[in-house]
Write a structure and sequence with these properties.
Layout: H1 12-30, E1 43-48, H2 54-65, E2 69-74, H3 86-96, E3 99-103, H4 107-116, E4 121-123, H5 131-145, E5 152-156, H6 161-172, E6 176-180, H7 189-197, E7 201-205, H8 208-212, E8 217-220, H9 233-237, H10 244-249, E9 255-258, H11 270-273, H12 280-300
Parallel strand pairs: 1-2, 1-3, 3-4, 5-6, 5-8, 6-7, 8-9
Helix pairs in contact: 1-5, 1-12, 2-12, 3-4, 5-12, 6-7
Bound molecules: phosphoric acid mono(formamide)ester and norvaline.
Norvaline (NVA) binds near residues 162, 222, 226 and 259.
Length: about 300
């Protein structure tokens, strides 16, 4: 079963082939050429337990472009919202559809769905990871700076689900990943230990400015993710804002990424996100192309 649950489950070759395919499909679409239709006659169920703009629309449009029918389902409107088990949901949906995407709080719910489904399952974000986002981010890095080998990427802010998938990507590709998080918000120690054991070039910083110095890509995300308590986060993260001062010490051709939605004036300043070095809307667009490559791999192996 070709599930796409996490970056770590796949080899660099498989991931690179998906990224190449995403780039090909993007060029074809821009040139007005009709692309392959691996989902012709197939349906994909999209379950959302949390809000979404990009993930929902890019999957829905991507599935249609691949010839398939997307079925959007809010978890609250399904029987899982009233307590039906995720195991039975997996078994039933597998009788109707050819793949399932799910955005849910619990990563274990994703894993249980995948274990009991007899069709491919794609992680559309959990509290622990967001692999589809990182596929789009890698595609954007390649577009801006060429092959991933030897590049320097700096994550600034929360060691959250998006950071976790970046760490998994650093374990698969040969770029340096610098991480600057406030005390108490570092990514899980077992994840960084695993990534280092897999060969990831991870460097932890206490200072955002040091982490940004000479970096080619600066990435951040919200300080309060879906499901997080606000607590003292606003004050705790203040020294980790992606602002003009950080961009000034980065490489001259550095780009800025943010998975969006963004809170201007909090984790990123308006001047940076709307400035000439921002790649955030290319990054958002690439969700479409990268996820088409993921779905295509899930249902047809390429
Ligand atoms: N980046 C991202 O996943 O955005 P949405 O929450 O809008 O899907
Ligand atoms: N870390 C954010 C990402 C949103 C796309 C969250 O989980 O809310």
């Amino acid at each position: 079963m070709r599930h796409f649950l996490d970056i770590r489950d796949h080899s660099a070759d498989t991931l690179q082939a998906m990224l190449d395919h995403a780039a090909e499909m993007k060029s074809a679409l821009k040139a007005g050429r009709d692309g392959p239709k691996p989902l012709a006659g197939k349906s994909v169920a999209m379950i959302f337990e949390k809000p979404s703009t990009r993930t929902r629309v890019s999957f829905e449009v991507g599935i249609s472009q691949l010839g398939g029918t997307p079925l959007m389902m809010s978890a609250q409107d399904m029987q899982i919202g009233r307590g039906e088990s995720i195991e039975d949901t997996a078994r039933v949906l597998s009788r109707y559809v050819d793949a399932i995407t799910i955005r849910c709080f619990s990563h274990d719910m994703l894993l249980t769905l995948a274990e009991h489904a007899t069709v491919p399952v794609v992680n559309a974000l959990t509290e622990r990871s967001h692999p589809c986002q990182i596929m789009a981010d890698l595609q954007t890095m390649i577009e801006r700076h060429g092959p991933l080998d030897g590049q320097i990427v700096t994550w600034i802010g929360d060691g959250n689900n998006v950071a976790a998938s970046w760490i998994e990507a650093a374990a698969r590709f040969n770029f340096q990943l610098r991480i600057a998080c406030p005390e108490g918000y570092a990514p899980p120690a077992e994840l960084t230990a695993w990534a280092r054991a897999e060969g990831a070039d991870l460097v932890m910083y206490d200072s955002a400015i040091e982490a940004a110095t000479g970096s080619q890509t600066l990435v951040t995300d919200v300080w309060i993710s879906m499901g997080d308590e606000e607590g003292t986060r606003r004050e705790d993260f203040r020294p980790f804002q992606l602002n003009e001062e950080l961009l000034a010490v980065a490489a001259g051709d550095a780009v800025v990424m943010h998975c969006l939605p963004a809170w201007r004036g909090m984790e990123i300043t308006e001047a940076v996100i709307d400035g000439p070095q921002s790649a955030v809307f290319d990054e958002a667009e690439n969700r479409l192309h990268a996820q088409k490559a993921v779905l295509s791999w899930c249902v047809s192996g390429n």
